[in-house]
Design brief:
The chain is α/β, with parallel strands linked by helices. It has helices at about 5, 25-30, 45-50, 55, 80-90, 105-110, 120-135, 155-160, 185-200, 215-225, 235, 250-265, 280-285, 290-300, 305-310; strands spanning about 10-15, 35-45, 70-75, 95-100, 140-145, 165-170, 205, 225-230. The protein folds into two domains: about 5-235, Aldolase class I (TIM Barrel); about 250-310. The chain is built from 15 helices and eight strands. An eight-stranded parallel beta barrel has the order 1-2-3-4-5-6-7-8, surrounded by five helices. Helix 8 (about 155-160) runs parallel beside helix 9 (about 185-200). About 45% of the residues are buried. It binds flavin mononucleotide. The site of flavin mononucleotide has 21 residues, from strand 2. Flavin mononucleotide binds near residues 171 and 208.
Amino acid sequence: MNFWQKLPKPFFILAPMDDVTDVVFRQVVARVAAPDVLFTEFVATDGLQSAGREHTLQRLEIEPNLSRPLVAQIWGANPDNYYTSAKEIAAMGFAGIDINFGCPERGIVARGCCGGMIGRYKEAAAIIEATKRGAGQLPVSVKTRIGLSEVITEEWASFLLEQGISALIIHARTVREMSRVPARWDEIAKVVALRDKLAPGTLIIGNGDVADRAEGLQRVAETGVDGIMIGRGIFHDIFAFSDEPSPTTPSHRLGILLDHVQLYETTGNSKPFHILKKFFKIYVSGWRGASDLRAQLMDTSTPDQVRTIIATAEVPEAMLPVS
Ligand SMILES: Cc1cc2nc3c(=O)[nH]c(=O)nc-3n(C[C@H](O)[C@H](O)[C@H](O)COP(=O)(O)O)c2cc1C
């Protein structure tokens, strides 16, 4: 049995997000309200198999206190690089490997990678086969969208379901739509029906615009998916994965921010400090004076400066009521 088969149903996953779900932020989310599964940021197989691989390898750093299955997500164009990368990843301690067939970034799609692989059946089959061969015992999943410019859910999902993958994650928009239109959950329901017919053993995970666990449970009831993946919801609610209301106060939230900064500092191969700034709004919002405090924090350039500002900040005892 691989980890996918052992998960409670429905299960919840923190979506892979470049420059967000790194080894530091994953630890913060796992401490605050843990999802059932975590994913790395996407990792370039071509980069991993190049002379400058040290930089790419940083994306595969595993947290020391890992309490949930962690899936390494990979992308690229060359099946040989998928094979070698999957083999290496299988020896590192990950629970699974996910193939990114969904990223809409223009340059990447133009090279036929990620979202640019949608509809390229021969190439996609070769990549999945090479990854599975390299992964050995590790389960392989695919995360994708419902088309490149046109919606081709049925053709594309049927093809993927025939490749013997453990899980299929559907972000219910086309590549061209980026994130500009609401996710089409009715398309995800179609994939569940296809799965029942073609590949009963493959788990279906729905993704797109889910704010939190409560909304995810509604989507499960509507579509019959096995699991829900939440991405941007975590920016609005650090407790998005909590199964009960999470009482919080401004000082509690600043405490989480200090934890985040501490983890950033103690993680050996951290990213540049400015990457931290995109997280400030997650913690510093929801009380009178929060935006002023945030503006001060945005002017910092070291962890110590953040700590000094927080140490002297005066915050109210309670959050503003949610309107
Ligand atoms: C900043 C950012 C970075 C992302 N990076 C990745 C990535 O590395 N791999 C991936 O499969 N999807 C990536 N995505 C897409 C998300 O995983 C997810 O599919 C998308 O945000 C829709 O889910 P949501 O509405 O819950 O956010 C990224 C999204 C955002 C906002």
